[in-house]
Task: inverse folding
């Protein structure tokens, strides 16, 4: 459910016609719906009722301050993977005491900053990281609450770039090293081993891998308690998929919640979850304009738009499918086209061999489900200023990140 709908044939975000936004702020533009984001946050949290839950939004999926501020006001915590993300969360008014720090390679100054901020938990992924964190915490006379991110070796059956719990993955502590690593954690000054964590991948389209991971994590919590570790937190990571318009329909938050509740109820742990995509993907679109049409070889037809792979990387990097549709009332009929961007790369294809309503130069179109990992992964490749971001709230809207200028492109450089 999202708040991008047609009114009198024309696509709107909540009560604002997207054509009006394009006039005011130009294209390409990321447009987010506040009502959609909040709805997703509420549905997700209510799906986990029955567990003592801390939901930490994965900042990497949509790091804009305005979006973080909305979620902070909803009471969400944050999953961060860098000092930069911690800075963003604090700037947005997020509560450090609800922050989880994930990631396979944290710099010492990032660990120090997170300790100073008093975050909720460090998810550590290696013995060396534990030792480094221990040294810094001991020096500061602080105690770092730590969960070890383990690799539950569950096949999440998702795109190989976003599967993280295969046995070959760089993420997490391998199963056979987990007990020893906990013993190490328990022996180190400045470290309090309070939990276990996992994250099995992203855009996961079935409940089964989550249930499997939860079973394994449950067994691990019990095993660690037998070893004398007082494990009271279990972080299940993020990863629940969203419908992109192709592939299987992912489970609903409720089905996901039921699976977790079934396995984890009565375990006496605080359950952490780190949703990113689920909350924000459908709350955002990429608004772009057709620059021109171009006839390729034979029947190949290209529609060249003003957004490229630098603005929305997912199709090029993961062959991801994003539904696209015209903003104005769709013309009758259909054609098969390649919708491509202006970037000088053959991979700069937003939609390949896509059946669409006929498109003409000057048309506005949207790429749907672009709120997560859209702007977050945008770059300035080809010296293209990154898009403007707009947040719509009912009939009103505001720019939450200005379109970059040419000056922004050269900031910090000297000829
Ligand atoms: N927690 C951890 C430790 C993660 O690594 C991630 C995502 C999440 C939570 C959030 O996962 P989500 O709920 O959003 O699936 N750029 C890719 C996705 C990369 C995901 C990386 N980690 C894409 O555009 O599909």
Result:
């Amino acid at each position: 459910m999202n708040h991008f709908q047609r009114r009198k044939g024309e696509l709107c975000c909540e009560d604002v016609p997207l054509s009006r936004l394009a006039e005011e702020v130009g294209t390409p533009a990321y447009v987010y719906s506040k009502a959609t984001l909040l709805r997703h946050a509420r549905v997700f949290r209510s799906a986990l009722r029955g567990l003592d839950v801390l939901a930490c939004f994965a900042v990497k999926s949509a790091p804009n301050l305005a979006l973080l501020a909305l979620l902070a006001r909803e009471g969400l915590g944050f999953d961060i993977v860098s000092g930069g993300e911690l800075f963003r969360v604090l700037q947005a008014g997020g509560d450090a005491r609800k922050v989880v720090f994930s990631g396979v390679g944290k710099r010492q100054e990032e660990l120090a900053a997170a300790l100073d901020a008093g975050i909720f938990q460090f998810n550590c992924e290696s013995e060396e990281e534990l030792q480094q964190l221990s040294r810094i915490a001991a020096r500061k006379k602080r105690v770092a609450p730590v969960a070890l991110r383990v690799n539950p070796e569950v096949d999440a059956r998702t795109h190989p770039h976003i599967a993280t719990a295969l046995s070959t993955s760089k993420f997490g502590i391998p199963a056979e090293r987990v007990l020893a690593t906990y013993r190490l954690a328990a022996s180190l000054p400045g470290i309090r081993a309070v939990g276990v964590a996992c994250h099995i991948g992203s855009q996961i389209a079935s409940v089964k891998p989550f249930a499997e991971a939860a079973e394994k994590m449950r067994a691990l919590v019990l095993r660690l308690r037998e070893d004398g570790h007082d494990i009271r937190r279990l972080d299940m990571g993020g990863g629940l998929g969203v419908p992109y318009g192709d592939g299987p329909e992912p489970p609903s938050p409720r089905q996901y919640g039921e699976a977790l509740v079934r396995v984890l109820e009565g375990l006496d742990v605080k359950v952490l979850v780190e949703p990113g995509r689920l909350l924000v993907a459908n709350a955002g679109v990429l608004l772009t304009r057709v620059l021109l049409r171009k006839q390729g070889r034979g029947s190949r037809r290209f529609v060249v738009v003003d957004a490229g792979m630098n603005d929305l990387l997912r199709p090029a990097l993961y062959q991801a499918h994003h539904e696209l549709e015209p903003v104005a009332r769709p013309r009758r009929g259909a054609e098969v086209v390649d919708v491509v961007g202006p970037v000088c790369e053959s991979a700069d294809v937003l939609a390949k061999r896509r059946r669409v309503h006929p498109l003409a130069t000057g048309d506005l179109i949207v790429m749907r489900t672009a709120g997560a990992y859209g702007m977050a992964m945008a770059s300035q490749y080809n010296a293209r200023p990154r898009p403007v971001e707009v947040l719509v709230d009912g009939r009103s809207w505001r720019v939450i990140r200005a379109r970059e200028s040419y000056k922004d492109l050269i900031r910090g450089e000297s000829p």
In short: The longest strand covers residues 284-295. The chain has two domains: 4-32+281-409, 103-273. The two ends are 50 Å apart (CA to CA). The chain is about 30% helix and 25% strand.
